[in-house]
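Researcher: Re-running this chain for the archive, since the previous output was lost when a drive failed. Same request as before.
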Amino acid sequence: MARTKTKQANFSLPDQLLEELRRQIPRGEQSKIVAEALRKELLRLRFRRAIDNAFGAWKPEDHPELNEGTEQFLCRVRHSSRTGSQEK
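Model: Regenerated structure tokens:
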């Protein structure tokens, strides 16, 4: 597997967190662990931002077919796809 190009970063960590990292993770793997944790957190933040930005995009008036409830709607759609009918 090809190695990913890396650059050195200088940032501060709380003493207790750094001590635990050094205690639990071998020296040669610490950067990999920190990078993976940061990657996961950045992804979580991107998803959170997307959810926050999408809030309110779904308007009930744009989807009157769901007025009866999603369960009934899905049952009707599934039934029509199985039988080939287009009942409303």
